[in-house]
Amino acid sequence: MSNTSTELSEDIEVIGPGQMLAEARVAMGLSQQQVAEQLNFRPALVNEIEQEIFDSKLPDTFNRGYLKNYAKLVGVDEQDVLASYEMLGVAAKQRTELQSFSKITEKEAQHSRLMWISYLILAALIASTVLYYLQDASNNALTIEPQPNNGESLSAQNTNQAASLTADNQNLESTTSEPAASNKQVASNIAEPVNEELASEPSLTSSQAAAQPTVQSKPIELAQANADLAQAPIAEPVKVVFSFAGDCWVNIYDGAGERIAWGIKKAGYVMELNGLTPFKVTVGKPELVAIDFNGESIDMSKYNVGNIAKFTLPESS
């Protein structure tokens, strides 16, 4: 989908309701005082309307009523005046959003500084902990004391070794009389651990063989998941072209709920839009608009002349 923005487009000429009414009043040769007398308005109220200064404390219905009465007096289309009044609300909303964005950016900068300070404190704590354990380990190594009575332990060890050698000699003398029996006993002692090791090997092999299919199944599952993601359909934007034969107010949303066009379009203006369907379209004068939706012309003759038309594209069959 092409990049869209909720800001006012530079190729749209926005005329405020106050300017429209003031120009029509001057064209009729009326003064603000005369308009105030005919509409039973305060002269200051007429001046505020033309300066586009509206009291925020009053309900929106009152401001719309003032604009409609003024438009009837000077012969201006009420719908055009009200549409221009709505554009003032959009501009005010954009200013509020910009202020909110600047506040969010400032808070994010403060949060980033706090995060860096926290990281530095954490790194200092980790470094001090590691240094403490290293110093403790070095102190323990230095405080190891030598074992006492080394001479007595060495003499006792020599006595034990001499006794064991004497016992070994006696065993050798007693075993020389029966060499065959001794050889059989030694052979059986050697064979028993070998047989035990051979008996234990098949159980390990079978357990490894049982675990092998589960390990091999994981790459297959991952490959299947990647294939499913590759086959998932991807929505593509659709092109729609609006051609205006006269001044007309429009308001258009795409399928993602984003407002992609609005305001008064001048005669001869051609507007190309790209977005996801369905488009929700509102036009002030459908007889002045020609629409080409994805290469197909839309029949606008079914909408009443001079009335606001609301429809979706593509149209339901």
The CATH class of the domain at 7-141 turns out to be: Mainly Alpha
CATH architecture label name of the domain at 7-141? Orthogonal Bundle
CATH topology of the domain at 7-141: 434 Repressor (Amino-terminal Domain)
Report the helical percentage.
55-70%
- The H/E string reads HHHHHHHEEEEEEEE
Sheet with the most strands: spatial strand order:
4-1-6-7
Q: Could you give me the name of the CATH homologous superfamily of the domain at 7-141?
A: lambda repressor-like DNA-binding domains
Query: Helical element count?
Result: 7
For the termini, the CA-CA separation is: 25 Å
On the 0 to 100 scale, the average pLDDT is: 75
Radius of gyration: 47 Å
Described by strand count, sense and barrel closure, the largest sheet is: 4 strands, antiparallel
* Category from helices, strands and their pairing: alpha+beta
Portion in beta strands: 5-15%
* Count of extended strands: 8
Low-confidence stretches: 1-6, 174-188, 197-216
The shape, in one word, is elongated
Q: Mind explaining what this structure looks like?
A:
This protein has 317 residues and is an alpha+beta fold. Among the domains are: 7-141, 434 Repressor (Amino-terminal Domain); 238-313, Immunoglobulin-like (Sandwich). It has 7 helices and 8 strands, in the order αααααααββββββββ. It has helices at 17-27, 32-39, 43-50, 60-74, 78-142, 150-175, 179-230, and strands at 238-244, 248-253, 259-265, 270-275, 279-283, 289-293, 296-298, 309-313. The strands form 2 sheets. Strands 4-1-6-7 form a 4-stranded antiparallel sheet, with no helix packed on it. Strands 3-2-5-8 form a 4-stranded antiparallel sheet, with helices on one face. A hairpin with a 5-residue loop joins strand 2 and strand 3. Helix 1 runs parallel beside helix 4, helix 2 (32-39) packs across helix 3 and helix 4 (60-74) packs antiparallel against helix 5 (78-142). The model is unreliable at 1-6, 174-188 and 197-216 (pLDDT under 50).
